[in-house]
Each structure stands twice: as structure tokens, then as C-alpha cells.
Design a protein that fits this description.
By secondary structure, the chain is of the alpha/beta class. Helix content is about 25%, strand content about 20%. The strands form two sheets. It has a six-stranded parallel beta sheet, sandwiched between helices. A four-stranded antiparallel beta sheet has the order 7-10-8-9, sandwiched between helices. Strand 8 and strand 9 form a beta hairpin.
Length: about 230
């Protein structure tokens, strides 16, 4: 996956976490939010900022949204995410539009009629992971396929994992090219990536990955700490 231009509407905790992850992987990221309290230029020096309302056509024209490869509607308001998605697809013909679903009751709205290519619903994600339900098992429910050329992969951290009880940034630093961490599931539910948070045994880590990167990702996640080799002889 080469460098992409990615616009993210919503600079809350989710939007900022996504921006940090993608910018850290070398992508050109723009965060759009009208709330000055959400703007933290010093906190995310690799990210461009636009203080404006992402639901206004003039704002998106100023941002030259048509030049972006991906638009992510990541606000905490489903109405905002739907409007941003529709404008991105119909007015600017953005190739890939990803939208966050906050209220599961609104899930039926997030489809191509609103310009959404991929909808991400944390409650659905948790349910699917727990029940082992694949997207092919319930296509009639309107579940959207993953992005072309990308697949969702997940893994449960075990006691011998070199990433257990270490900051999340240690894992993301070693991810193969073409892989992004998108969520972590634990006793407290689902949360977005947070580099400083400690990963614990039993956490489920969820990734978006190119098919070619699945093998290297599996090797990385299945690697174990070899205490016998690392321990001094004597």
C-alpha cells in the first residue's frame, strides 16, 4: 500500500487515534473538525488540520476533498457521518468512504445509498468476533464487504506473546507494511488504537490488512518469547 491522502471528519478520540496510526504509517492525513477544543496541532505534528464544519460543501471544497483517496467519517454523531459520506461520494467522487456507526439502530442507513463503502460498527464487530460470524454468513442484513484489497484480521494475545503487558506502540512499530491496527477488545469493550495503553493477555487486537500482508502479520502475532534462549546460562 503506497502513500495515500486520507481525510478524517471528526477529531474526537476515535478520529485522532486513526489519524495517529495512519500518519505514523506514512500517509498524508487531514483532520477536519469545527470544535476548536478538539484541535491539537502540537499533539499530532504529522497531521494537517482544518478548523471547519465537515458537513458544509464549501468546507470540503476548500479542503479539495476530490484529491483524497479515502475519506473517513469518524465523528460521534451518525447524522454528521452520513452527510460527510454522501458529500464525499456524490460531490467529490472519493474512491473509498468509510463511516463510523455510533448507534446500532442506524446501521441500516450506512450503505451505498449514502455513499458509504465500508461501515464500522463497534457493537457489530464485537458480536461477530465473539460469535465467530463472518460477513458471508449474513449478507441479507446489509453488512458491507471490506475495502477492495483489504481484509479484517484479529488475534487474541496469549501469555507467551512478546506484546503482552507492553505498550500498544511496541506492536504497531513492528506491523508489516500494509497493516493497520483498528481496534482493541478487552473487558471494557472495544476501544480505538491508543499507543500508550498497555496490551494485556486476552485482549483481541483487530487489524485491516492487505492480503499479501496476512502471512507476515500471522507470523508476527504467533511469535513467542523464548525464555530458554533469552535466559542467561548457568
Amino acid at each position: 500500500m503506497g502513500e495515500m491522502r486520507i481525510a478524517i471528519a471528526g477529531a474526537g478520540s476515535v478520529g485522532r487515534s486513526i489519524a495517529t496510526e495512519l500518519a505514523g504509517n506514512g500517509h498524508d492525513v487531514l483532520l477536519i473538525d469545527r470544535d476548536t477544543r478538539a484541535i491539537g496541532v502540537d499533539d499530532l505534528p504529522q497531521v494537517e488540520w482544518l478548523l471547519a464544519d465537515a458537513c458544509e460543501l464549501a468546507t470540503l471544497e476548500d479542503a479539495r476533498l476530490g484529491d483524497f483517496d479515502v475519506v473517513i467519517a469518524a465523528s460521534s454523531d451518525d447524522k454528521v457521518n452520513l452527510v460527510v459520506s454522501l458529500l464525499a461520494k456524490t460531490e467529490f467522487a472519493v474512491d473509498q468512504v468509510i463511516a463510523r456507526i455510533n448507534d446500532p439502530a442506524n446501521e441500516w442507513l450506512f450503505d451505498d445509498s449514502w455513499g458509504v463503502d465500508l461501515a464500522v460498527s463497534p457493537p457489530r464487530l464485537i458480536a461477530d468476533l465473539v460469535e465467530g460470524v463472518s460477513e458471508e454468513d449474513h449478507p441479507e442484513e446489509g453488512t458491507l464487504p471490506p475495502l477492495p484489497g483489504a481484509e479484517i484480521a484479529e488475534s487474541v494475545l496469549h501469555a507467551a506473546s512478546p506484546f503482552a503487558d507492553r505498550p500498544e506502540r511496541d506492536l504497531t512499530a513492528e506491523l508489516p507494511e500494509g497493516v493497520a491496527l483498528v481496534a482493541v477488545l478487552g473487558p471494557g469493550g472495544v476501544r480505538p488504537p491508543a499507543p500508550e495503553r498497555t496490551l494485556s493477555v486476552g485482549n483481541t487486537v483487530v487489524f485491516l490488512a492487505e492480503p499479501d500482508a496476512l502471512g507476515p502479520l500471522e507470523e508476527l502475532l504467533e511469535r513467542v518469547e523464548d525464555s530458554e534462549e533469552s535466559a542467561p546460562e548457568g
